[in-house]
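Entry for the shared binder. Reason: the reviewer on the internal report wants the predicted structure included alongside the sequence.
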Amino acid sequence: MSEVVAAPAKRPVIVWDLVLTIVLLVVMAGLAFVLLFFSFFLAFAGDSCGASSVCDVDRIGTGMLVAMILPIVVAVLALVAAVVVLVVKRLAFWIPLVGMVLMVGAFALGAAITASGVQPA
């Protein structure tokens, strides 16, 4: 007696999730470029250094780098995670949404570090 084992049913492609995830990934990439652009303006935090405030230029530089690099890293990780989840045919639209929130949080962290480097005299 031989048993016939049926292959497991494949998951169907969820079209609305695929389209929404792609649109949100494009929006997330745009947000990454906007945050990268805004991170260069954090250099202006040091404008008052020496005149009316005491500055830690290393901390300002560190905050700028965090605001530049960390949102891009989060965006890349969210992109990879979304693609992996789409390949296994699960709902993935939430991944770019969470990624965008984390990107803004990462930028805010970098801005806070930069601002902490400027102490009024």
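Summary line for the report: Residues 16-44+60-120 form one domain.
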